[in-house]
Amino acid sequence: MSVITAYFFGLCFGAVLGGFLYTVVWRLFAMLPLFAPSICGSCRRPVGSSDQIPILSYWLLGGACRNCGKSIPWQLLTAEIAGALIISIFFVRSGVLIRDFSGSDIIDFISGLVAISVLLLTIISDARHRLIFDIIIYPGALLAVLLALFQGEFLNRLGGIILGAALYVLPYKLFGGRLIGLGDVKLAGYIGAAFGFWGLISASVIAYTLGALASIGLMASRRIHFK
């Protein structure tokens, strides 16, 4: 298949995945069954299949529930768009639908798809609820390490977990959770498990740099204070 075809399937699959991951986070926070029929978050009435088309349904419904008229969270649309863009790029870069896959390619593809899903779940839950769920991070880290056995990356991933603990547990303990939270420690461990020693270092440098730039901008606009 062509690159354009891979992009198209990636956009469709990613939009569905993004919406599903948003729903998983919402159901975890609301303590609802993960795989029950779709319902409106406001009136809790069932949502018809024609109103569950990713991105398109939000636009056709005007961002509101057909039954009660309450607004559909814009974060759902954002998750669908983000999923579509990220997965489409991932499909093309991985070569899925473009070239024949070997056994090692399949493992790498599954590993990448799992990592994207876990990180999107974490971003959604942190942005919506300021929470990072253990039920997402711990199974994700375990699966990443198991896949690393087939990729010949086990020691690298184990080193990433150890480095994550060393880099993030210390400031967490020293500052009593005021500088970074326990969720950051768990997330660092997962990133080490999923991307290895150097992947964790790269992610940490990027994260702290972007966080510092964002904080400087917010402090300059007086939206937050230094503390």
Commentary on this structure:
By secondary structure, the chain is mainly α. 70% of the residues lie in helices and 0% in strands. The chain has seven helices and no strands. The protein is globular. The chain starts with a helix and ends in a 7-residue tail after the last helix.
Bin the helical content.
Answer: over 70%
The topology string of helices and strands comes to: HHHHHHH
Number of helices: 7
Overall mean pLDDT stands at 89
- Report how far the terminal alpha carbons are from each other: 53 Å
In a nutshell, what does this entry contain?
This protein is mainly α and 227 residues long.
Characteristic key phrases:
227 residues; 7 helices; mainly alpha
